[in-house]
Design a protein that fits this description.
4-stranded antiparallel beta sheet; 2 domains; 44 strands; Transferase(Phosphotransferase), domain 1; Methylamine Dehydrogenase, Chain H
Length: 738
């Protein structure tokens, strides 16, 4: 089992020293709503101190919810919850001090040790039923019981996070018809926006126990709308639930609240009997994690991070060479339903002059470079970024996937049957294809991955598959190759005998599955539009980075997994509105993301390393994304800052190095940066896509030097950094870089 990181992260330079009479020691976690600290009171008591971000605390209704949360926590008491020691919902930074509960969240415990044995599930359920009963007797309902709101300790489970709990019948903080809660564990009445009674908490508890016993939620995964539909109308998936528990949990999951047992009856029916303690049935990895957390409390807290040192504004070194990187390219986007594609493959036209309507000389800017080549072809209106095998672009053209000569734009070869780019992947050198195979007259639905030749081959002559995985449905049109690295290919596939989707790693040498991790499948809407689920993967230092959209809202879940076993080393959930990056910016130390701020997470443990831009004036911005998807090169992170242009940050500290000097108004009018497309950085320039075209910013002068007019939707560079590839609706253009 890999060494797990410490549960304590260092305080940042701008974290306060004290809140109330509590001295802050370390960070336990941080998210879009606030930060949780490990702290000690003046009397020496160690507590978990939950705070709310100042911008959220300005909302008076949220302060009311925060006060109600502390009231509900007091109601449940310290036997089944975290004891409340103090709270100040009216402080400039509202805070709530509770017992520091030593143990992982239930979902983390299941990831560490696998599904719990039946006796542990029974003991867990009985205690949770008693906890809910205590709430209900005080006329309070939880409304958001789920695995991440339950902490597993050696003495038993504890319920936390009462952020949307409320008194029965009190609708003042809930809009009529609104479904508040987590879709995967909602009751049918809650999903329909109706009154959530104690019977709704029983329904949620049964869903939690299904997860504890099997590792999957009772109604699967996916987007909120699909989950809400399944919760209201579909039968729960009880596959894997022990036979002794299945009938009782099925009763708790009845669509009719009147048919569900009360908490008292449920606790009695679940009680395992015997004298064994709760900890006796926990898997060894979970017990080890509890011990690790207990030890961390008494160790010296990590040193507070120093404030970023002020650095002189220096341009990135112009002479620095770019190392040739092996790219693990991911699926990126999808084909919209009803797209008109050219029949019989891509219709190609090569030109040696600039296309009509291309950029004209701007009085403020230099003329843009002449295109190296361009290709007119039927390209899907929802454009995936091309991937690269060596320096050769591999892109969807019409009804085929084509390998393009990077020097001439000529098609080297095309692959019929792989028109969906997400069914092609590469390790940066070798190209792999995921296709449907026929055996006799009956389709062989096994996932089959073949090596696709980079040179011309006669149509229909395909190499035999390198691996076949009968456990997965390769015939499903939205099965994806997420990428490849060395001997391993990574897939996103549906099980052959059910509806469970997984991220799967398989060996190209042995042809066998190495590991799998449950993942959300495509939603009904994505299936209708023939769009794959937003699941991405990238090989990085220390393992493979996996990221996917959360079930509800704009959150992005990022996790690092051991490449050999799939074991999750850490995970973080971040608010990230806007497009999901195909390739998040990474180096050997961090992964970089842009949304409300530019953030750096440590690859070692997923903790925040730095954040840049909170409260900063970024100009008028439509939508929630203030900072664009970043890119990193030679120790510098580049991102579009609102409507101001490019900002360059030190990759180690997040300190601003320089900001782009704006164009004259006459040249920049109506130009809006595209924050959903990452910049491309080379030794001398950073290239940005905006509403008028591709803008080249000189790193030494820190200002735009030319613009190539285009209505492009994607901007990429080949691994050598010598060519830019710009994709419009029906054209792909190559421009010289630097």
């Amino acid at each position: 089992m890999p060494q797990l990181p410490s549960p304590l992260a260092p305080l940042t330079h701008d974290d306060p020293e004290h809140l109330g009479d509590h001295r802050l020691l370390a960070r336990l976690g941080s998210g879009g709503m606030g930060t949780v600290y490990l702290a000690r009171s003046a009397g020496g008591r160690t507590v978990a101190l939950k705070t709310v971000h100042t911008r959220i605390a300005a909302d008076t209704s949220f302060r009311t919810r925060f006060r109600l949360e502390s009231d509900a926590a007091r109601v449940i008491g310290d036997r089944y919850g975290a004891r409340v020691f103090g709270a100040d919902p009216l402080a400039p930074t509202p805070w709530l001090a509770t017992e520091y509960v030593i143990g992982p969240q239930l979902d983390e415990a299941v990831r560490l040790g696998g599904p719990l044995p039946e006796a542990s599930v029974r003991s867990l359920g009985a205690d949770l039923a008693r906890a809910l009963g205590q709430l209900h007797r005080s006329d309070v309902v939880h409304r958001d019981l789920k695995p991440s709101n339950i902490l597993v300790t050696a003495a038993g489970p504890k319920v936390i996070d009462f952020g949307i709990a409320r008194a029965l019948g009190d609708e003042r903080l809930t809009s009529t018809g609104a479904a508040a809660g987590t879709p995967a564990f909602m009751s049918p009445e809650q999903a329909g926006g109706l009154e959530h009674t104690p019977a709704g908490d029983v329904f949620a508890l049964a869903g939690v126990l299904v997860f504890a016993a099997t590792g999957h939620a009772p109604f699967g995964g996916g987007q909120a709308a699909d989950l809400l539909y399944r919760v209201r109308y579909a039968e729960a998936d009880l596959g894997g639930v022990p036979a002794g528990l299945a009938p009782l949990l099925a009763r708790c999951l009845s669509k009719d609240p009147a048919l569900r047992p009360g908490t008292g009856e449920l606790a009695e029916l679940l009680s395992p009997g015997g004298a064994a303690g709760f900890a006796d049935g926990l898997p060894q990895p979970v017990l080890a994690d509890i011990a690790r957390r207990a030890a961390a409390v008494w160790q010296a807290p990590p040193a507070r991070l120093a404030a970023p040192a002020a650095e002189p504004e220096t341009a990135a070194a112009a002479e620095a060479g770019m190392s040739r990187r092996r790219l693990l390219t991911l699926s990126g986007g999808a084909v919209a339903a009803g797209a008109a594609l050219a029949a019989g493959g891509g219709w190609w036209a090569w030109r040696s002059r600039r296309p009509d309507g291309a950029a004209k000389k701007n009085p403020v800017l230099q003329p843009p470079p002449e295109p190296l080549w361009w290709v007119d072809a039927a390209i899907p209106p929802v454009l995936p970024e091309p991937l690269f095998a060596g320096d050769a672009p591999v892109a969807v053209m019409g009804t085929t996937v084509n390998v393009v000569n990077p020097r001439t734009g000529n098609s080297v070869t095309e692959f019929v049957g792989y028109a969906d780019r997400w069914r092609v992947g590469t390790d940066g050198k070798v190209l792999y294809g995921l296709g449907r195979r026929e055996t006799g007259t009956a389709p062989d639905k096994a996932v089959a991955v073949s090596v696709l030749p980079m040179e011309y081959v006669e149509p229909g002559k395909e190499a035999p598959p390198r691996l076949r995985l009968p456990a997965y449905d390769g015939a499903h049109p939205l099965t994806q190759i997420l990428g490849a690295s060395g001997d391993t290919v990574f897939l996103h596939a549906k099980s052959a005998g059910g509806e469970q989707w997984s991220v799967v790693a398989a060996s190209l040498t042995s042809g066998k599955e190495l590991w799998r991790q449950p993942a959300a499948g495509p939603t009904a809407h994505q299936v209708r539009l023939e769009q794959p689920a937003v699941v991405r993967l990238k090989a990085v230092r220390g393992g493979v980075l996996l990221w996917q959209r959360a079930e509800l809202g704009d959150d992005l879940r990022v996790s690092l997994h051991d490449a050999a076993t799939g074991t999750e080393r850490w995970s973080a959930t971040l608010a990230a509105p806007g497009a999901t990056p195909d390739q998040p910016a990474t180096d050997d130390e961090h992964v970089y993301l842009g949304a409300a701020t530019v953030q750096a997470l440590r690859l070692a443990d997923g903790t925040p390393a730095w954040s840049f831009g909170e409260g900063r004036d970024v100009g008028p911005v439509a939508g929630k994304r203030r900072y664009g998807i970043p890119t990193v090169r030679d120790g510098v992170v580049y991102a579009v800052e609102g409507t101001r242009g490019v900002v360059a940050l030190d990759a180690r500290t997040g300190t601003e190095r320089w900001r782009e000097t704006a164009l004259k108004k006459s040249a920049a009018q109506e130009s809006t940066p595209n924050r959903d497309v990452a910049p491309v950085a080379t030794p001398r320039h950073v290239y940005v896509l905006d509403s008028l075209g591709v803008r080249a910013v000189d790193l030494a002068a820190r200002r735009p030097v030319w613009r190539y007019e285009t209505k492009a939707a994607t901007l990429t560079a080949d691994p050598s950094g010598t060519r830019l590839h710009v994709r419009e609706k029906s054209r792909m253009t190559s421009l010289p870089a630097d």
